[in-house]
Amino acid sequence: MKTTISNGEIKRQNRIKTAQYIFEHRMVSRQEIAAALGFSLPTVFQNVTELIDWGMVCESGEYGSTGGRKAKVLKIREGFRCVAGAEITAHHVRLILMDLNWSLLAAEQVSLAYENSSEYYEALGEQIDQFIRRNGIGPDNPCELIGVGISLPGIIDHDLGVLRQSYALNVMNVSIRLFAQNIHYDYCFENAAGNAAYAELENKQNNTIYLSLNDTVDGAAYFDGELYHGDNFKGAEFGHMILVPDGRPCYCGKKGCLDAYCAARVLNKDNARTLDDFFSDLEEKKAEAVQLWDEYLEHLALAVSNLRMAFDCDIILGGHVGGRMAKYLRELETKIRRYNKLDLDISYIRTGRFKKESSAIGAARQMVDRYLSGLPVF
Ligand SMILES: [Zn+2]
Question: Ligand 1 centroid vs 234 CA: distance in angstroms?
Fold first, then answer.
């Protein structure tokens, strides 16, 4: 059956795309928006005027002139809404508050050991409430909170609303409603690696593979601006690709998984030392650290090369190790060249900008997307 979309709905969708573009790119001109979204300039002028009148967008200076009238810089107005992000881990909740210009207003980590109990879920809601209140958000503050994006470490079945499996939390098949029942704001849930990837994406439309090199190795894939979940929400579990047949045992029960070779715990020796200590030893060229790093990069090179062959797109190395990887990329490149004869260099690899807050920031960004996609008619 043919469905028709009203003119009002088309206008609303165009306004949503304009608002999303300004949020994603932070500082833009009307001309850039028109070129990027394929809108006519009059359409963009109308959308922007409506968003300015509504209080969401403001003009902030001018671009340098290239002849003719200077283009005005557009951005989200200071003080227009804020958003929270929460990353749930086995022993902590990491909380962030940011505005819609991507400025981090607050970041905290609170101790809260996960257990599947009503006491935990009550405490989670209370911690989120307290964090938001501590940072001055409430009925008296005009900076209205649009919601809380939440990261969970595991496979989320969005159809059933269930955390299907989480090794980190040591649970299976827990309803998302339990996590949400004491949250007094709008919310959304996504898995931790998907959110971390989302925080790192500079251009949503670029296809991107994200490899999270943390205590575990996790992954995410964004294709055409959307997180790829797979048919059963198990997509992009790169940490459990077999790298070495019958190799080192992995916590998942298999042998030879990427996780067993490239998780941060390989470097910090299951927390016998800190990751900072390891990288200090590496800087000082201590033999044990140099050899361990060489083996680590060998396995990482193999995994990255395979991912590049499979997906032919940008690859971000994130997490605690990925965030420290920038100065070692040449070393990694030398190893990748042995496996990859199709690419001239490794300019498709980028290292993560965020070490600690990526998952919570990505969760907040998901929440903003949800908010903007529901912009009202005005
Ligand atoms: Zn595994």
Answer: 13
Beta strand residue intervals within the chain, DSSP E: 57-62, 72-76, 82-88, 92-99, 104-111, 145-152, 155-157, 162-166, 171-175, 187-191, 208-213, 217-223, 226-227, 314-318, 349-351
CA of 241 to the centre of ligand 1 (A): 7
Residue pLDDT, tens place only, 108-134: 999 999 999 999 999 999 999 999 999
Q: What domain count does the chain have?
A: 3
Per the prediction, the chain carries an average pLDDT of 91
Residues 111 and 227 placed together within one structural domain of the fold: no
**Cβ atoms of 277 and 268 closer than 8 Å:** yes
pLDDT over threshold 70, residue 65? no
Which structural domain, as residue segments, surrounds residue 183? Answer: 82-197+358-373
Quick one: 69 and 191 in the same domain? no
Kindly report, residue by residue over 158-212, the tens digit of the pLDDT. Answer: 999 999 999 889 999 999 999 999 999 999 999 999 999 999 987 777 899 999 9
| Structural domain contains residue 378 | no
Q: Residues with Cβ within 5 Å of ion ligand 1?
A: 240, 250, 252, 254, 257, 259
Give the Å distance between the CA of 250 and the centre of ligand 1.
Answer: 5
State both tokens at 179.
Answer: 């996590």
CATH number reported for the structural domain that contains residue 92 in this entry: 3.30.420.40
CA of 232 to the centre of ligand 1 (A): 18
How far is ligand 1, taken at its centre, from the CA of residue 294, in Å? 22
